Amino acid sequence: MLTGRTVTWSSSTTTVATVSTSGLVTGKVAGTATITATSEGQSGTSAITVVHVPVASVTVSPATASVATGGTIQLTATPKDGSGNPLTGRTVTWSSSNTAVATVSGGGLVSGVAAGSATITATSEGQSGTSAITVTPPGTSRFGHVFIVTEENTNYSSVTSSNMPYLMGLAAQYGLATQYYANTHPSIGNYFQLSTGQILTNDDGSSVIENVPNIVRSLVSAGKTWKSYAESIPNACFLGGDTGNYARKHNVFALLSDVANNPTQACNIVPFTQFAADLANGTLPAFSNIVPNLCNDAHDCSLTTADTWLRTNIGPLLANATFQQDGLLIIVFDESSGDNTHGGGRIVWVAVSSKSKPGYQSTTLYQ
Q1: Rounded to two decimals, what is the model's pTM?
Q2: Which of these, 182, 186, 190, lies nearest to 159 by C-alpha position?
Q3: Domains of the chain by range and CATH?
Q4: Model confidence over 270-329: pLDDT tens digits?
Q5: What is the C-alpha to C-alpha distance for residues 262 and 207, in angstroms, rounded to an integer?
Q6: Euclidean distance between CA atoms 275 and 148, whole angstroms
Q7: Neighbour tally for 125: CB within 10 Å
């Protein structure tokens, strides 16, 4: 045996099997391939047969879900081997036990047709998994998880142009309010309007603790959980003023008496980094207030930056099974830039939910 010599590896059929630079062979599909090792012009081979690992089970996620009549929900099927390992590249077919209630596409997208129940089945190589679907009548669906992301200081026309393709793609797929207006200028009054139903102040530098009916009070009274995920705050439970790219005027939860005077509630203000962990662990609260920092909310940086941030950070939420089952996401701008119509100008308001009417545009005036 000679040591210290360079050896190169190759596969005769890379669609069947590949080989790494260290000789590790990976089977791709059933078939045969010859693996060759070459050193200083001399070669040796190994005949590799890749066998087909049969599908032993199919898991469908989510296993149970509800969808409104006219709404959709995406299911995912995962074929597995006898040890429970996921198998890729397998053909999956979908079917519904009751197409009068719910239909399913070849890709697992379920559409609610009429109120009732249906079992959706995914089949691969003779093995099946199911999801129990309940279709609710129009207007009766409830949201178990609500999320709001507030962006900054941009006219409706600027957003609906080509500057935010990801956001406007969501608007085209789900719902857009075309006549939604902010209440005032500058920012802070609109944030208070969203959280208390009142403008309260137009002083962006206000540090007054406001003791008025507010969303936190309503959530706690109803036994619902909440968090405010604020990007760029130094730590959880932070009630302080502006720091770095964080602006308290964009997170007025810190100025509500129910939060500022209650250490337990104050610790529901957490860094935005906690959002990904809560999403992965299935521990998202009933209500999530999402606060991008001054760059990522388009206050200091471009709409392209804000759009990229949404794609990166909100995209995983929309793909999550819990969100697809009972989630509602609202993305709204706090105020327009240079437009005073109805107080704060015309702004973009987008609603995303599997329960929404696809591609709906409302022309009703909202404020």
Answers
A1: 0.67
A2: 182
A3: 8-50 (no CATH), 57-136 (2.60.40.1080), 145-362 (3.40.720.10)
A4: 999 999 999 999 999 999 999 999 999 999 999 999 999 999 999 999 999 889 888 999
A5: 16
A6: 13
A7: 15
